[in-house]
Design a protein that fits this description.
FAD/NAD(P)-binding domain, 422 residues, 7-stranded mixed sheet
């Protein structure tokens, strides 16, 4: 084993999007500083390669409207970061990098992708840019300790030590351990005196054994999904819901999964439910009018057949089965009790949520370094000198659709300014 000691002005721990952006920000704001990135894996930005199903969901147009609305965490903290480097800055950055972008129009979610639809090419362009700016990258570096002296940080690793005046921690969260994420950054941060809010997986499928999922396994529909925590309505989202053998998945589920994961995995409570509506953005009266028309027009057909067209044959049959309707029940023969059950399944089907899926199926981490211990303006530690944080290691997480990557780019840029407050 080779033992060495290298001195830099800035050492960045973690080479994901936040780490790469932090390095470029340091070079922009402090062009004379020497910069090194230490990454525990064999390549930078491995998780980024999975974003947007490999296409690279860079940011989201709705970020410009009100970034706080799309994130879990301290509103002032989040606003402070995006006020310094927001949606327009992110778009300008990629334009200057040479990455033309477009907004995906097949949904209204506002996702921004590179025109080439290839995350790996964007990642490689970022790595090339780091090289052009003489930022050194060290791979397969496992960090064992951070030690602060009067003038320098010493980074102890599996193969010697590095010393630097400043440390920027961008070690990420715990999702996708198959890609190298293991939450080791939390231990390093705790070792510097920081409180770690218990990390839990988010943007994740949920476990909810129920008849509807059983009958509709493999189906996907646009629905309204609402979390119910301790009997109180939580987050509501509209989007695709996928019915699985274990419960529910899909973008709408991911958008509300934070509530379930915090309640079940962090607070260890078992009082979570999900409510689904097959008619998003419609009032009860509007749904009743649609249903009544269907049933009257097709009065001599089985109820399930009356629902064909609104739903697939499989979904229509499942809805009727969960409502307890006999297959032979004709649309014109529904009694009031049967009608109410059918209406209830269509508009407020409710099921207990018993768990979430694991770290390899979630997209993001909720939890991490407590933001009240980090300066909102600079992302400098309030606990240790010349220490900064950026990205998923902080207790900030957003919805799916490019919001979390937006946080990585923006917080990386702000941390890279190295505005000391301690």
């Amino acid at each position: 084993m080779t033992t060495f000691s290298v001195q830099y002005d800035v050492i960045i721990i973690g080479g994901g999007p936040a780490g790469m952006m932090a390095a470029l920000s340091v070079r922009h704001h402090h062009p004379d500083y020497s910069v090194a990135i230490l990454d525990k894996t064999h390549e930078l930005g491995r998780k980024f390669l999975t974003s947007g199903a490999g296409r690279g969901n860079l940011t989201n147009v709705h970020l410009e409207e009100n970034p706080v609305a799309y994130f879990h965490g301290d509103a002032h903290f989040i606003t402070s970061v995006f006020s310094q480097f927001g949606y327009r800055d992110i778009m300008a950055f990629f334009d200057e990098l040479g990455v033309p972008t477009y907004e995906e129009k097949k949904t209204s979610r506002g996702k921004i992708f590179p025109e080439i639809d290839h995350a790996k090419t964007v990642r490689d362009m970022l790595v090339d840019t780091l090289g052009e700016h003489h930022i050194e990258i060290f791979y397969n570096v496992a960090i064992t300790a951070l030690v602060l002296s009067a003038d320098y940080w010493t980074v102890e690793t599996n193969d010697g030590s590095y010393t630097g005046r400043y440390i920027i921690m961008t070690a990420g969260g715990k999702t996708y351990p198959s890609l190298g994420a293991d939450g080791s950054g939390y231990d390093l941060a705790a070792g510097t005196g920081h409180t770690i809010v218990t990390p839990v997986v988010t943007a994740v499928p949920i476990v909810s054994k129920n008849q509807l999922s059983h009958f509709m396994q493999g189906e996907k529909m646009v629905m309204e999904a609402t979390s119910i925590i301790g009997g109180v309505n939580g987050t509501t989202a509209v989007g695709d819901v996928m019915f699985t053998q274990y419960g529910f998945s899909g973008p709408a589920i991911f958008d509300i999964s934070h509530d379930f994961s915090v309640r079940i995995n962090r607070e260890n409570k078992r009082d979570a439910k999900i409510r689904l509506s097959f008619f998003p953005n419609k009032t009860a009266g509007e749904v009743k009018a649609i249903l009544d028309k269907r049933l009257s027009v097709h009065a001599t057909l089985p109820v399930a057949h009356s629902l064909w067209g609104l739903f697939t044959q499989k979904a229509a049959g499942a809805i009727c089965a969960v409502a307890g309707l006999p297959k032979e029940r004709l649309s014109g023969e529904l009694n009031p009790q049967e009608y109410d059950k059918l209406f209830g399944v269509l508009t407020e089907f409710t099921s207990e949520v018993t768990d979430t899926r694991g770290w390899n199926e979630g997209e993001f981490t909720a939890g991490g370094v407590a933001t009240d211990e980090v300066d909102a303006g600079s992302l400098a530690s309030k606990k240790a000198k010349r220490l900064f944080f950026a990205g998923e290691i902080l207790n900030v997480d957003g919805q799916v659709g490019g919001f979390n990557l937006s946080w990585a780019w923006s917080s990386g840029w702000v941390a890279g300014k190295l505005l000391e407050t301690v």
